[in-house]
Amino acid sequence: MRPFLDRVCVRVGRVSTTAPTPAPGARPTTWVDGAAGSLFDLDNLPYGVFSLPDEDPRVGVRVGDFVLDLAPAAAGDMLEAAHLFEAGTLNPFLAAGPRTWADVRAWLVEILGSESERSLVEPALVPLAEVALHLPFEVADYVDFYCSLDHASNVGRIFRPDAEPLLPNWRHLPVGYHGRAGTVVVSGTEVRRPRGQRKAPDADTPTYGPSTRLDIEAELGFVVGRPSALGEQVPTGAFAEHVFGVVGLNDWSARDVQAWEYVPLGPFLGKSFATSVSAWVTPLAALEHARVDLPGQDPEPLEYLRVGDRAGYDIAVEVELNGEVVATPPYSSMYWSPAQMLAHMTVNGASLRTGDLFASGTISGPERGQRGSLLELSWGGREPFTVAGAERTFLEDGDEVVLRYTAPGAYGRIGLGEVRGTVLPAAR
Amino acid sequence: MRPFLDRVCVRVGRVSTTAPTPAPGARPTTWVDGAAGSLFDLDNLPYGVFSLPDEDPRVGVRVGDFVLDLAPAAAGDMLEAAHLFEAGTLNPFLAAGPRTWADVRAWLVEILGSESERSLVEPALVPLAEVALHLPFEVADYVDFYCSLDHASNVGRIFRPDAEPLLPNWRHLPVGYHGRAGTVVVSGTEVRRPRGQRKAPDADTPTYGPSTRLDIEAELGFVVGRPSALGEQVPTGAFAEHVFGVVGLNDWSARDVQAWEYVPLGPFLGKSFATSVSAWVTPLAALEHARVDLPGQDPEPLEYLRVGDRAGYDIAVEVELNGEVVATPPYSSMYWSPAQMLAHMTVNGASLRTGDLFASGTISGPERGQRGSLLELSWGGREPFTVAGAERTFLEDGDEVVLRYTAPGAYGRIGLGEVRGTVLPAAR
User: What residue spans carry the region label Disordered (chains A, B) (predicted)?
Assistant: First the structure.
């Protein structure tokens, strides 16, 4: 690793000296150059894992366009939690639980918001442009839900046009399944078009080859910090005791592979080749101002699934394909809340581990422009849409997809980090 | 930890001094008391993780009714791979790959089969009766397949009596799905009856409560050692390059929960509360004499799923309920081979990690007494069977299930270790 003082010298000239000292009682304003008023102000402070060239990954917090190198900053301030930042992953910090999460957040606001801390803290700030970002935590189990009423209804209408769009269980429980934790990758990782078996509706036998219906699913993921014991049920009210924060998530999907394989045991290879997550984990604490009521549930769910007011989140999502926004799904339209997903996932006594990741399923709103998958945007491939003047249905080699997430914060809007991926051609 | 010499003194009197020295060229005979001719002779040598009271878990090899404590034995012999046994889990050894696996096995046969090694090795032997056994490896991803033609046909006939029992994709690919890695537990762990949602066929709405159709599935699990890269396909011919060995596996299932939840995304809470595996991982090398041809596949599978002769395994399974053998499923009857499961699981470029576990699905043979689940043995609960004079369908609180596995070895039959579990009543 580059010596600490060496890195200080590289960076010290890049930080502004003009940030004001906050008046007593006023909300703190950060002295970090360009951060105040940005999507990554003091009301956000997401966590991630970064590395400088030829160095090991380190835990950091994003503020403006800088990363605070947490290990030296915490050790230098003799923070009690400093040892949690020594590994190149967030897992030890996630495992520490909500009191530690709150303590560290309060400390961050203090050191990044007080001009008097600046000279001590500034050496641990690294410009984002100089770092590589890594998968922020080691994923334990990955579960994917199916929580959007509009998405589930659209899928039903596309595949079963003559039947009731929603299946009988859908309004009674958040339908979900386990995905492949080992292929969760960080934003920016290229995604190779998968090969596999698929069968045309009019064919007698399947064929093998590259997927011809490669798709995205714009989702939100929830990251478990504090574990639970085998046999323990985690009630909806304990959501914030166990869940640390959220990531943006793209559940890449090979629709042709999925359609052939998924009866009766569910999606498998159509999903397991890659799931991309944002490099930043936004703590629930940063999303307090984004909490909203659910749109309403009818029928009322069974008691173990009941939640109070403000169980939803008002998070805006943008789906960008090759530089053009093709959809703006609203997370606030989701039928099932994350606390309900968590309670359902553990109602049978299944234990939680630090690093468990569970995702919402495709976020789709009621409007055509609010659909979070190309399957829905192109209505099963039958109604192409236009991107940069060309008709499009599913993903083509070379396509770049970026999912962007923002939400109301305490000061203004906060950014949840993006999920970016480019499609590589199938292996020869 | 208890000092090494202390443990020597505890154990040295329990080892026989009568084992013969092998004649040159003869197959080695172990000097370990009672091991020669047992199910755990030198042709077996499964690996596990054990602990002595108040000590940390350690890696060991079973021989007869003893465990060889691998770390001191390997270090004492200055074995190159000795450092792989320092952790309390098999994962570092699994990751080392087939050359190391073969080297260590040859070394074990030498030290346990040569009277001249006895005085050096004996201090590292621990009686099995003195140890606790632990989950032998850290499970990365867990995938469960559905490879028995008889099981899939039985399930089809039970649930869809008027339709074709096999679904259209079944003979074209090994159907599978991801399960919950975090709730894989070692044999002997008690299993609490899960609660959850289920809906009676004639009811309008679901109810919540303890599962009333708790079941077992007798399966065989395969443990991945050497990982593969994202985007890499692992062909059937590379099976033994990646898979280290096998475990017995009981895929506990709540049939009522599963029936209500599984459309369209597959089994979730009906399976995720517990999956039990044997404490011993039997290396593929010990199963060379158990290899047999598959029963035959029609139609011939797509090229990426083709295998040669002896792709199956002749492993006998006994399902014991409360001390009575209720079924003897033959693994040799399985339609899809483990090499095909592995090739299918990675055909889309999904990477393998050390500790990945994939299981066969319920093992059922063509005869009534060869069915590996109570669902089949009781034909959906409609045809009770008799255990200890009582009529039985699904599991009752207090039931103890033991799965036992044996196979032909080089010397005689080998034991794959048992999978034991007792049903606890649902939480209040």
Answer: 190-210
ipTM field:
0.93
Report CB contact under 8 Å: A351, B182.
yes
Instruction: Give tens-digit pLDDT for B160-217.
Output: 889 999 999 999 999 999 999 999 999 999 999 999 999 998 999 999 999 999 999 9
CA-nearest of B243, B234, B195, B269 to B94 is B243
Sequence spans of domains, chain A: 4-134, 142-424
- Subunit contact B268:A230, Cβ cutoff 8 A: no
Domains A4-134 and A142-424 share a fold: no
Single out the catalytic residue among A151, A172, A178, A344.
A151
Which CATH number among 3.90.550.10, 3.30.470.10, 3.90.190.20, 3.90.850.10 corresponds to the domain A142-424?
Answer: 3.90.850.10
- pLDDT, tens digit, 9 for 90 and up, residues A22-46: 455 678 899 999 999 999 999 999 9
Whether residues B302 and A353 touch (CB distance < 8 A) is answered with no
Query: Which residues on chain B are in Cβ contact (under 8 Å) with A353?
Result: 182
Shortest CA distance to B42 belongs to which of B267, B233, B210, B285? B285
Residues of A in contact with B233 (CB under 8 A): 195, 427
Query: CA A191, CA A253: separation in Å to the nearest integer?
Result: 11
Distance from CA of B194 to the nearest CA of A (A): 5
Residues of B in contact with A183 (CB under 8 A): 230, 350-351
